[in-house]
Amino acid sequence: xxxxxxxxxxxxxxxxxxxxxxxxxxxxxxxxxxxxxxxxxxxxxxxxxxxxxxxxxxxxxxxxxxxxxxxxxxxxxxxxxxxxxxxxxxxxxxxxxxxxxxxxxxxxxxxxxxxxxxxxxxxxxxxxxxxxxxxxxxxxxxxxxxxxxxxxxxxxxxxxxxxxxxxxxxxxxxxxxxxxxxxxxxxxxxxxxxxxxxxxxxxxxxxxxxxxxxxxxxxxxxxxxxxxxxxxxxxxxxxxxxxxxxxxxxxxxxxxxxxxxxxxxxxxxxxxxxxxx
Length: 277
Prior knowledge:
Protein name: Ketoreductase domain-containing protein
Shape: globular
Pfam families: adh_short (PF00106)
CATH topology: Rossmann fold
Radius of gyration: 18 Å
Keywords: Oxidoreductase
Number of strands: 6
CATH superfamily: NAD(P)-binding Rossmann-like Domain
Number of helices: 8
CATH architecture: 3-Layer(aba) Sandwich
Number of domains: 1
GO molecular function, one term: oxidoreductase activity
Strand order of the largest sheet: 3-2-1-4
CATH class: Alpha Beta
InterPro entries: KR_dom (IPR057326), NAD(P)-bd_dom_sf (IPR036291), SDR_fam (IPR002347)
């Protein structure tokens, strides 16, 4: 359970929240929900400046990853490094960053997040060139084919677990030593406990039309710029009170900030096992 978030079958109170497929998402934690970027998370907001920061994004060749790379570049990042499996798409994404003309360095590396030696090499190379890595967005993901349980292919299901969980852990380990999505959320909390000086967040982007989500056969409800802008906001001091926690990209950050005391004092928005032992 996640304290502060009602169970999946709870009817949300806010009339704003009326998704086309309500069974696929949690009710929102904020009364205001968003479908596109907005001023509070805009990468051009001076309060969220990424000036001088080095950003590394996995799965940065398209979709949410590519949009997040652009957002950090617009926010003033010194360098944005993206990884992915398709060189052509990576090159196009890196070129789009440079085309902004904002002076942001762009690098790309072809890599599978399951390949630990390759990921470690990339983190080392970036650290040598730029001296540090300030922000890591572990965005690479895989969605198995949509099917009934009896028709599911074990290899395809296992591939999702490997990318979403093993891949996420590989990136996390490379950063500091240098099931599936639900397990990734717990990894974030465990990592925060081991490295309290760092800030970790688990972001659920929601229903967005990307190459990965196309397998679900469910139309998107949000733009890629929504989670992209949220990533920039999370990298700013404003989001410090949300470390260790999970949140959805469509939650309104101004409302979250107004509930800071409630979230922190109530230890909300974490995955915990209450009542035992």
